[in-house]
Amino acid sequence: MSQHQTATGERPASHLFYQSRMRRPLADRAEGIYIWDEHGRKVIDGSSGAMVVNIGHSNRNVLDAMKRQMDKATFAYRLHFENQPAEDLARRLSGYMPEGLDRVFFVSGGSEAVESCLKLARQWALATDQPERWKVISRFPSYHGSTLGALAVTGYDALKKPFLPMLRDMPHIKAPTAYLDRDNLSMEERGIRYADMLEEKILEEGAESVLAFIMEPIGGASTGALVAPDSYYPRIREICDKHGILLIHDEVMSGAGRTGRYLGGDHWNCRPDIVALSKGLGAGYCPLGAMIAHSRLVKPVLDRGGFAHGYTYAGNPLACAAGLTVLDEIERQDLLGNATRIGALLKAELEGLAERYPFIGDVRGKGLLLAAEFVSDRNTMAPLPKALEAHQRVVDIAYERGLIIYSRRTRGGVEGDHFLVCPPMITTEAQVGEIVTILDATLAQLAGELSLPVGR
Ligand code: PMP
Q1: Which ligand 1 atom is nearest residue 279's CA?
Q2: Cβ of 50 below 6 Å from ligand 1
Q3: Is any ligand 1 atom within 6 A of the Cβ of residue 431?
Q4: Does 417 contact ligand 1 (Cβ within 6 A)?
Q5: Candidates 3.40.50.150, 3.90.550.10, 3.40.640.10, 3.30.1360.70; CATH matching 60-326
Q6: What is the pTM of this model?
Q7: Superfamily of structural domain 27-55+334-450
Q8: Cα 109 to middle of ligand 1, angstroms
Q9: Transmembrane region positions (predicted)?
Q10: Cβ neighbours for 223, distance < 8 A, ≥ 6 positions apart
Q11: pLDDT (tens digit, 9 = 90+) per residue, 356-383?
Q12: Nearest alpha-carbon partner for 425 in 288, 284, 286, 290
């Protein structure tokens, strides 16, 4: 019996604030793409935690760099000192950004990064004498974080509703779920149509009152790795420019290389004004996030006295030393190349599974941000009945078989089950084989349990 358990097998749940469907084991050890629990059982971390551990667990070089930094200083307050790891990481990161995005503001997580984007945008409006601009349009569904500001732009009713009296709900437009549409338009035409919803919303709200538009360039868990048609991205930029509105890319999940480019938006050469990063930036070695903004926005804010915002742990030297070495590892091991190559292989395997399991209606994503969606009918893309709870069951079966995946039951604001397969960027071809073997058995078991159709 572990020291964390009582005689009845229950652990005193002093730091757990939610009901768990199943008893979670203690994580004991992690290496590469695997985690061992307290009983020595090994599972594949097929979701990199929550798409965090992009370079894999227990990377020796990152651990050594952290130890070296620990021996020097683990904390130096940002108002008293600069620190070398933060300076170096800021310089390195701006080299990965679209041109002009060279002002880096460190935080400790994704919600903090998004809050910082919203507050910088607002302070830019004030500093440029546009105080009437405050509305931030976002997409539905979407997830931008759990703090009240990030929640205000999040498109996820269940999470937001209890807090509505405490926050200012922001306008939403529909996420570009072009794959669900049954019309005669081409994908490119649909992309334009979805982007034009932004302009319609801007006009409805009053263009002079709109401050920014925030989106995940490649969707995360709320939409299941949603990729818009190519035409969507430049049209969004055009609309923002036309109305003087800032474009914020939430790259918390899609950034730091997961999709095979450093930023998800790089697949379309996007030019956002502000980017939010976290998750893969510290890659699970330390809490770390960043807001990266165009110097054009930051200058007027600095001229008016500076950014009135900040966190005690911002630019923590230990976290930044970890982040720096994570970047080194991405370069040294060519993990962008590997995410592209292994991602393509895994996607092809998922498409192969979709041929055998007709209840998979769509496989999508880029690099190693991949998802598969369940349907009851591929022609209509109708979802599976909610009562089947397929998204929960698939996760549980996969876990019992030794694979962690991630799932949700939302898509484009309507019901629908999808699961995400997002292993670390160090995953090898042989490990893709291990993942797919477990997924295959998982889907066969799911089909049996829920009486779903199976192909050849
Ligand atoms: N934005 C996106 C796109 C995310 O996926 C997440 C986390 N899932 C967040 C923001 C919030 O990040 P954190 O949980 O680190 O606060």
Answers
A1: 15
A2: yes
A3: no
A4: no
A5: 3.40.640.10
A6: 0.96
A7: Aspartate Aminotransferase, domain 1 (3.90.1150.10)
A8: 7
A9: none
A10: 141, 142, 175, 177, 216, 410, 411, 412
A11: 999 999 999 999 999 999 999 999 999 9
A12: 284
